[in-house]
Predict the 3D structure of the following.
Amino acid sequence: MGVIPLLLYAAAAAAYTVHFVRRDERIGRLATAALAGAALAHTFLIGMQTVRVGHAPFGGTTGAISAFVWVLALAYLYLEMSTNERAMGVFILPLLVALEAIVASSPGATTLPEALQSAWFALHVTTLLFAYASFALAAVVGITYVLLFREIKARHPGFFTARLPSLQVLDVMNGRAVAIGWTFLTIGVVVGGLWVLKMQPQGASDPRVRAMSLLDPKIFVALICWAVYSFALYARRIVGWSGRRAAWLSALGFVIVLLNLVPVGYFLTKSHNF
Amino acid sequence: MHLFLLGLSHHTAPVELRERVDFGTTGAERALDALMGRAVCAEAVVLSTCNRSELYVACDDSDRARHELSAFLAEFHGVPADVLEPYLYALADADAARHLFRVAAGLDSLVVGEPQILGQVKDAYAVAADRHVTGTLLNKLFHAAFAAGKRVRSQTGVAEGAVSVSYAAVSLARKIFGDLSRVNALLVGAGEMAKLAARHLKTQQVRHLTFASRRPEQAQALAHLLGGVPIPWAELEAALATSDIVISATGATAPILTRARVAAAMLGRRNRPLFLIDIAVPRDVEDTAGDLEQVFLYNIDDLHAIVSENLAKRSAEIERAEALVAEEVARFLAWMRSRDAIPTVVALRQRFEAVRVSELKRLEPKLASLPPDVRARVDEVTHLIVEKLLLTPTEQLKALTDRQMVVAYADVLSHLFSLSEEDEEGSDLEFRPDDGPAGRNSRSDPKRVS
C-alpha cells in the first residue's frame, strides 16, 4: 500500500537535499511541489481506504503511522509556506520516507473493531496525531538549532549559517511547536482515559479494552512522553531553559514518541494492537 | 538599430578623473536631456556610480555614436576630450550587452558581488524610462540585465557572505538574534575602532546603545555623537548583564572581560545569548569566556578569517556566474537578432497586403453588384489567405539567430518580391507601404508584427 506516495516522498526528499546543499531556488520549488504532490496522493489513498473500510483508516498501528506521516507532511508544508523557510525540509523528509516505507510494506487498512467506533476514539486519535506532528517539527527545529549553535559557537560559521534561519527564530519555533504538541497530547490522553473509564464498567468483551491500564506499554510510554514535554515546557517558562537544552529535550521527547509509535505499537502493546 | 556603450570605470580611470565625469543624482537627468537634444541616438540610459560613468544608447551608426558620445562626455563635464579619451571604453551590441549584464551581476565591481550595483542600475534605468528616452531595445536590454543580476545573485555564491569585518560581525549577530531591533548593545572603549563599530550598530537600529569607557568624558562624547547612553566604568558589570551584543575595543593591556566577570553576567540572563565581539589588540576578553553556555565570542582574527574565507568563496563562484551571464547574453542576442528580420517581415507583409488591396480594387466593378455582407466575406477571405501564406515565412524569419543569415534572407526576399523597388515596379499599386501604417485594413498595421 502507498507505493506512489512513498515514491513521491522519496523524490521530495532528494530534491530537498539537493536544494539544501546547492541552494537553487528552482530545485527548492520543485521539492515543495513534489512534497505537495506526495501529500495529495496520500490524501487520495486515505480517502480510498476510508471508502473501503467505512471509516477513517487511522485505527491500526500501520494506519496510525500513515496518518502521522500525512499530518506531518501537511503541517510541514504549512510551516514552510507561512515562514517562507525551506531549510527544515531536508531534516523532515527522511523521517516521512522511513515511516511511509513501513506503511507501504504493511498490509492495508483493516476495519476497526466495533468497540472503538466512536467519536471519543476519533478525537483521541486525531489530537494525538497533531501532537506527534508538532513534536516531530519541534525535534527537527531543535536539531537544526544545535547544528547552527555548534557552528557559531566554534567561531567557524559556514555551511549551516548560510542555510538556516537565526538561532532566535529556531528557538521560538521550537518553543511554540512543543507548546502546541503538549496541548494536543494532553487532550488526547485525557480523552483516551475518559473513554476507558466509560467503557470498562460496561464489561466490554474486547480483550484490548480490558488491557487498557497505566501499565500497558503504549499507555505507559505515552505518559512518559507527557512528563518529558511537561518538563520541557516548565523548564522553558519558569527556569529559562531555552536554546540548546530545550532543543535536546524536544529531540529526546520525539525519540520516545517514535518508540511508542513503531516498536511499541507493533510488538509490545496489548491494548492498542488493532 | 545598434546597441552602443561608452564609459569609464575603476578598471580604466583613476579616481580623480572618475570624480570629474560623475553625473551625480541630478546630472543624469540633465545629461539625458542634453544627449537627446543632440539627436545622436534614439534611446539612452546614463549609469553613474562612484566607480563608473557609462552611457548606453540605441543608435543607427555606431561609429558616429562613438565620436558624438565622447565629444558629449567631454563637453558635459568640461574635461578636455584628449584627456578623457585614453580612459574610455566603447563597446557595441553583444559586447555592450555582456558588459551591462556583468555590471548588474556585480562581476565588474571593485568587490565582486557587492550588493548595491543592481539597485543603481535599476535607478539609472528608471530615470531614463521616466523621461521617456528608452525604447524597445534599451527596455529589453535593461530588464534582461536585471534578470541576469538577480539570477547570478540567487543561483551562485558571488554575492554571498560578509566581506568586511564589521559586516561579518553584524551578520553573525543577525544569525544569533534574528531581528536586531530588540537587541541591546554595549560598547566598551572609546577608540576609533569602537566608534566605527558603534556607527555600524546604529545603522542596524539596535534598541539601546550603551557606552562604557575608563575615561567618562570619552564615553559621554561618543554617546552624544552617535546617540546612546554613557555609563560610568563601575557599572560595566550591570550593563554586561542587560546587553546582548558587547563590542570591546579598549587599549587595555590585560583582559577586561574575564571569564569570571562574564559568568557572573550570565547568571541573571535566563539563558539569553551573549555575543562578545573583541576587536581590541591585545584582546579585551579572556578566551575561555567563550566556553560558557550561550556565550558566543569572536575576536578580530576570527572575523578576519571569516572575511577572507568569504572572499575566497566568492571568487570560486565567479566562473559559474560568468557562465550564467553568458547564457543570459545569448538569450538577449537571440532576441536582438530576431529584431533584425523585422523590417523584412514588415516589408513582405506590406507587399502582400498591397497586392491584395489592389486586386480587390481592380475587381471592384464586378464585386459592386454583390450584397454588402458577401463583399465583406470576400475581403475577409482574401485577408485570411494572405495571413496564412505569410505565417510560416514570418516565423522562420524571426527564428533566425545568425545575423548573416538574416541579411541573406532579406536580400533574397527583397529580390524575389521586389521589396525595395516598390516605387518603380509598384506604380500600378494603389496602396504603398511608404504611406505609413494607415492602410485601409487596420489589420495590416505593421506594428502588429513586431
About this structure: Residues 52 and 109 of chain A are 9 Å apart (CA to CA). The interface with chain B takes residues 24-25, 148, 152-153, 155, 157-158, 161-162, 165-169, 240-245 of chain A (CB under 8 Å).
